[in-house]
Design brief:
Mean pLDDT: 91
Shape: globular
Order of helices and strands: HHHHHH
Number of helices: 6
Radius of gyration: 14 Å
Structural class: mainly alpha
Number of strands: 0
Low-confidence stretches: 2-8
Largest sheet: none
Helix content: over 70%
């Protein structure tokens, strides 16, 4: 998802670009991986659990810790009824976060800004499928 690279193999992207990437990935995952419109709408409505968890993280967790935090914050009954939520959204968040974390783990403020950008992307990507 993160394709703008600088010399040395590091990724050089802005939080805005991360938001765009997470938006596109979320929308594509919902569109193509959830084949039922009703279920797609339900999963999109529930994507906010993932985003709100990302917004609430205030420390600098490792990618594995973040995945565990997200999984702990999605109620078990929702995970059971809509396994697509975790199966689709967690990899989008964690794969993006891993790249950022590996590059900026010593700068908690920067990691936090990028995590907020990922959360916004999840919300934006799900928004066109949400019922109001």
């Amino acid at each position: 998802m993160l394709t703008s690279c600088k010399q040395g193999g590091g990724v050089n992207v802005t939080p805005a670009q991360v938001t765009i990437g997470a938006t596109v990935a979320t929308a594509a995952a919902l569109r193509f991986a959830v084949d039922n419109d009703q279920k797609r709408t339900a999963v999109a409505n529930l994507a906010d659990y993932i985003a709100k968890t990302c917004y609430a993280v205030s420390n600098n967790p490792s990618p594995d810790q973040l995945a565990a935090i997200i999984n702990q914050n999605v109620p078990q009954n929702i995970k059971s009824q809509y396994p697509e939520l975790v199966a689709l959204m967690v990899p989008i968040v964690i794969s993006t976060y891993t790249v950022i974390y590996n590059q900026h783990k010593d700068d908690a403020q920067k990691v936090y800004a990028y995590l907020q950008a990922i959360a916004l992307g999840v919300q934006t990507g799900a928004s066109s499928f949400i019922s109001h």
